[in-house]
Write a sequence for this structure.
C-alpha cells in the first residue's frame, strides 16, 4: 500500500531542491534540540529557586500604589478593603482612574460633588468660589494634575482650608462618614471632564 502524498503530483523539476531542504530541516531540528535542552536547564534553575520566585509573584499581585499626604508628603495609610469596586481596585494597583471619560461615572460624580458640599466652596462647575477652581491645568498643589495626587488632597485635606473628606477622616465622631474611594474617583472623573487633563497621563504603571 502506498500513501498518497501531495509530493507525487509535483513536477520533477522541483525535486533537486529537496536535498538542500532536507539539510535545512536537519539544521533546524538541531537548533531546536539545543533550544529545548537550554530551556529545560532554565526550568531546573527556576525550580531550584522556586520558593523565592513564588514569593515575588505573590508580592506582584498585591502590589499597590503608596499614598502620601498633601500636607507634608508623609505616608498615608488607607485601608485596602475600602477599595471595594473593580475601578477602585484598579486605581489602588495602578494609580489610574478608570472612570475618567466614562459618562455614567461622570454623571454620578457630579451628584457626589454636590452631596459632599464641594459645590459650596468650589462652585457648581468646579470653577472656583471660596475654594480654588479644580479644573486645572494649574493647581495650588502641582500633584493635583494627577488623579493619585488629587485623590490624596481630597482624602486627607490640606493645611490651607481644604478639610479631609475621606471615609473615617471627614468626621472623627463617625468612622462611617465620608467619601469612599469609589465615590472620590467618580468625583475626580467629573472634575476632569471640565478640564483638558485626564489625570491619568502620569499614572504609575
Ligand atoms: C469648606 C470649603 C470647602 C469644601 C466643602 C471643599 N473644599 Fe476643596 N478646597 C477648599 C479650599 C479653601 C482649598 C484651598 C486649600 C489650599 O490651598 O490649601 C481647597 C482645595 C481643594 C483642592 C486642591 C486644589 C489645588 O489647586 O491644588 C481640591 C482637589 C479640592 N479642594 C477638592 C474638593 C472636593 C472634591 C470637595 C468635595 C468632596 C471639596 N474640595 C470640598 C475648600 C473646600
Amino acid at each position: 500500500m502506498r500513501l498518497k502524498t501531495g509530493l507525487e503530483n509535483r513536477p520533477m523539476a522541483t525535486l533537486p531542491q529537496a536535498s538542500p531542504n532536507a539539510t535545512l530541516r536537519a539544521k533546524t531540528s538541531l537548533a531546536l534540540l539545543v533550544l529545548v535542552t537550554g530551556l529545560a536547564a532554565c526550568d531546573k534553575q527556576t525550580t531550584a529557586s522556586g520558593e523565592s520566585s513564588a514569593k515575588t509573584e505573590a508580592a506582584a499581585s498585591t502590589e499597590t500604589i503608596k499614598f502620601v499626604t498633601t500636607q507634608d508628603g508623609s505616608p498615608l495609610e488607607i485601608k485596602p478593603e475600602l477599595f471595594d469596586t473593580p475601578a477602585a481596585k484598579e486605581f489602588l494597583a495602578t494609580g489610574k482612574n478608570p472612570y475618567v471619560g466614562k459618562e455614567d461615572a461622570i454623571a454620578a460624580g457630579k451628584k457626589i460633588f454636590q452631596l459632599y458640599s464641594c459645590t459650596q466652596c468650589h462652585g457648581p462647575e468646579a470653577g472656583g468660589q471660596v475654594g480654588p477652581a479644580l479644573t486645572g491645568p494649574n493647581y495650588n498643589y502641582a500633584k493635583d494634575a494627577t488623579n493619585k495626587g488629587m485623590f490624596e488632597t481630597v482624602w486627607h485635606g490640606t493645611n490651607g482650608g481644604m478639610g479631609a473628606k475621606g471615609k473615617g477622616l471627614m468626621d472623627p465622631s463617625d468612622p462611617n462618614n465620608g467619601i469612599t474611594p469609589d465615590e472620590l474617583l467618580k468625583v475626580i472623573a467629573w472634575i476632569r471632564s471640565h478640564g483638558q487633563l485626564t489625570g491619568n497621563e502620569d499614572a504609575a504603571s
Observations:
- Residues 80-192 form a domain with the Cytochrome Bc1 Complex; Chain D, domain 2 fold (CATH 1.10.760.10).
- Residues 116-118, 120-122, 130-132, 134, 139-141, 144, 150, 153-154, 158-162, 165, 179, 187 surround heme C (CB under 6 Å).
- Helices lie at 18-48, 50-61, 86-94, 103-115, 118-122, 147-156, 181-192.
